[in-house]
Fold each of these.
Amino acid sequence: MIQNYPESTTAGNPQGHILPAFDPEGYTKAKALWLQKVQENEESAVVNGNAAKFLLQSDRLTAEELLKKAQLLEPANSTWC
């Protein structure tokens, strides 16, 4: 989902998240892929927001930065607040 549909609601769904405590290698790969997708889709509030949701449990600082960017890109969307 991250690779092909980073803007989908499924990609941003917490049930699909990988937790580093349970799968460190999978988490590391998924995090790197999310950061790549953010770079490829710099102007997408949804991709930034989905990546932030993924990182919220384990990298709060990066998640906060991505949420702030999503909010700047789409200020009318209360999802990013």
Amino acid sequence: MTNGQSGILTIDNSTRSVLAWSVIALVVVGGMIGTYFVDMDTYIWLGTEDEFGENMTAVFYFVAGILLVLHSRGEMKDGSTLVKQSLPILLGLFFLFIAAEEISWGQRILGFGTPESMQSINRQGEFTIHNLGLFDKEGAIIDHYRATHLFVLFQGILLPLAYRFWPFARRTMNRVNFPVVPLACVGFFVLSMVHVQLTKYMGSQWFHMEVRELMFSMGFFVFAIAVYRKTNRLE
């Protein structure tokens, strides 16, 4: 266990923690997939804009962002520097940005309209960046769906595995204070990627990605808790 903490729900790189959180991830993701076949209306509801699923995605990312920023603030109070905490802070701000994008920066909550200049180039006519034509699937510079999957693949799966099993990668990440995801969280991202493959046989529908984003956000929420508790690194 890291930092002297113990318990089956500790979020770290120990075998016990990895197994426990992998089971939790399997129940969550398996439950999502099972809902598609048992109660498709509920599944679609989870993937519908401004409904429970999208709102929870925003909440998970928002809290994750706050936890990362608070962690770095605490580290700087204890003598760390802004430079050393730059990567956790940037990731925290990125999560806050995603949360704001999920709710269109509060557009429907606050009731403000989309500027005409943006409405004409936004695929959904919203006050969002990820729906701009530059990031749309049709002729995009980079499709935001693929960008999301690549981010999850590297941040949530490949880099944590490299940190655990490749000493050079571990030394490098520790040196730059990279916000590494503990192995306990990897199950969320691996199983979400399984969902990516399964949806090819479940019908290519818009709501699959929204459900998947909810699962991604859960994984990053648990990861942020580990960073805040300082249990995400190997001792």
Amino acid sequence: MIFRLAHRLLASKFLRPRPLSDFSDSGDPSGRRAKQWSAALAETPSSAITRLLERGYLLRCADLNEPELSASFQSVCIIPEIRELLRARGLKVTGKKAELIKRLGENDSHAIRRVLRERELLQCSNVGRGLAEEWAASVVALQNDVRQAIVGGALDEAVRRSITFDEELGFPKWEFQGCPEAAHLARIVSAAPAILGGVSVETLQSLKLNAAMWYVCGEYFIPSSGETTQGSNLPLDTAIRMVLFSASCGGIWSSFEQPESHAYAI
């Protein structure tokens, strides 16, 4: 079976060591997440991971050689755990994390492998990283296409591009999620929240573009946060939310004015 876009997303989840249990029944007791992944992959997550392992896209961390073995161990074990392993072997427990791991490896490298094996940790191989990079590139392409369409005023095209991407990915929408709509996107790009009255025209345009990208691309677009918006005392992510809130309120008022229409959800 040819790998789907969802398989590339799955591979990206293992750019850092990750336990197999995250995609097993024990890690998903409701079965809801597994159902979503199965719909997108056209096979169960366990089956997909097995294929990725068999084809060399994923590796068992316990089978790695140095220095990758110690690097994986360092990324998933905390210092108290490492010290306990050293203490059980009568070894010194002082030093920085890298020193502790080196000491443990020099005296009992099997202990490191045993921990990684017990936790069923997997990570991308070099070829697997290539698969994950293909996923990242597809997200960048989505964002570029949507941004270009919004800036050019082609709001229908921006929405279509996002919907096409989601359909290709294949995850079923949760019942409280909906597809982006051009009518609501238009409200976002024309919003003028009073709370942002002090910002410059250029700043407001940038905020509205970020809000529009967030609305259309959803989780594939994470706006910056932290710094204060110039001309306002609001953090950037809060200012973007104010644009979305203003557009949402506009949708609610529109629904009152036209009873047959529906309010748009962000």
Amino acid sequence: MQNAEEYRKHAHECRTLARQCKKDEERNQLLLMAKTWTSLAEEQEEMAAKRARNRLLTPGPAVH
């Protein structure tokens, strides 16, 4: 699984390519891909934050 930083890098690459496109259809497709990569990055960050919260809330093994 990739991390959010890698997803954002892919989004940036798509936007860079979109600026170079002469055809609207190709540009729009790349911008849609960038939006999807950004959404994946946000989801990844949310999942990581939930995992971190769960680790804080889950008690460790009891020591007797």
